[in-house]
Design a protein that fits this description.
It contains 14 helices and four strands. By secondary structure, it is an alpha/beta fold. The protein has two domains: 143 residues, Up-down Bundle (de novo design (two linked rop proteins)), CATH 1.20.1440; 180 residues, no CATH class. The chain has a four-stranded parallel sheet with strand order 1-2-3-4. Helix 10 links the parallel strand 2 and strand 3.
């Protein structure tokens, strides 16, 4: 999955780089700039473009994008040496100075200067130019950002239960798997409010806790996700969700790996209620979650829920399943 993701990104960045090259060629304008554009151009310290201020800004963006492409290709190289990614070597002057700039990580780092360019062109009588390639690139960034699509993760609820059970046993506080729902909720909320981590991340990486391969794999998913930028992260779907503790368990595991609402990396946790009993009980479980001030603070008033069609139909028949889905969603 990560190999495919980085391959798509490298090729997408390459195509964006081609568009910036085209825009650089188009905007050979040496007079009539907006005040904001003058300020933006002045902020670019190193450039061969003196009078052509649009090119000064675009050239800087190109260098940053090349740096982004290089870092993406480097990660691909670490994953495998067999993937052939797009090359930017044909772009004239593209590599000059790219080592000295920062990569573009967030969409707004590219969107903000492009909007300044667009507004400057409109303000100075170049509306037709602004509505051409500049608008095309702005629309592209608005739709796809720098990540193409955010990454969703889906895992079955018992995998989280087993992972937390292994941790609580290591901590010597009992078996999470054997606790009832109230005990789980109390412990989870206590740990969510605590500043103390449950374990050291390097203990998971080096498997110092003696975890079985499946449990370690479950936890390493969070390790990988925590290293991605916030714009790359989407929903964490819990299949076979049964209880409120299933949701808080994922919240806690994210917290352990530094994925919080404060840094924008907290993935929205989406319970997937699939069986007839789970659909019937789902409103009560959500009500329990919404009584937690810690949980409500982290979701900022927004909750996503999925309902299962295939499993509920197998469990109760199509008619009963459809009715259960309808009543659960209404409740």
């Amino acid at each position: 999955m990560l190999k495919l993701n980085h391959t798509f990104l490298a090729n997408s960045y390459h195509n964006l780089h081609i568009q910036l090259n085209q825009l650089y060629s188009e905007l050979a304008i040496s007079s009539r700039f907006s005040e904001d554009l003058n300020k933006l151009a002045a902020s670019v310290e190193v450039s061969d473009d003196k009078q052509e201020k649009y090119r000064r800004v675009i050239g800087y963006l190109r260098r940053r994008l090349v740096r982004t492409i290089k870092e993406c290709e480097s990660k691909l190289s670490d994953l495998t040496s067999s993937i052939n990614t797009a090359s930017t070597s044909h772009a004239p002057g593209a590599f000059k100075g790219w080592e000295d700039v920062e990569p573009i990580i967030k969409a707004d780092e590219l969107m903000a200067p492009l909007k300044v360019i667009y507004n400057s062109l409109v303000e100075t009588g170049f509306e037709l130019v602004a509505d051409g390639l500049v608008s095309d690139i702005i629309r592209r960034i608005a739709v796809f950002g720098m990540t193409l699509v955010p990454l969703d993760i889906r895992e079955e609820s018992t995998r989280h239960t087993l992972a937390l059970d292994a941790i609580t046993r290591q901590l010597g506080i009992g078996s999470y798997k054997e606790w009832d729902e109230n005990a789980r909720l109390n412990w989870l909320q206590q740990e969510l409010n605590s500043r103390r981590p449950l374990f050291r991340i390097r203990d998971i990486e080096q498997n110092n806790l003696g975890l079985d391969p499946d449990t370690r794999k479950t936890l390493m998913v969070y390790k990988v996700a925590s290293e991605l930028d916030s714009e790359s992260l989407g929903a964490y779907v819990i299949s076979q969700a049964n209880t409120a503790s299933d949701v808080l368990a994922v919240q806690l595991l994210q917290k352990q790996f530094g994925m919080t609402a404060a840094n924008g990396k907290l993935m929205r946790v989406v319970p997937l209620f699939e069986t007839l009993d789970d659909l019937t009980n789902s409103p009560e479980q959500l009500e329990t979650l919404f009584k937690s001030t810690t949980y409500m603070g982290s979701i900022q008033g927004k909750q996503e829920v999925m309902v299962g069609y295939s499993d509920s139909a197998k469990d109760a028949g199509r008619l009963a399943a459809c009715w259960a889905q309808y009543t659960a969603q209404e409740a």
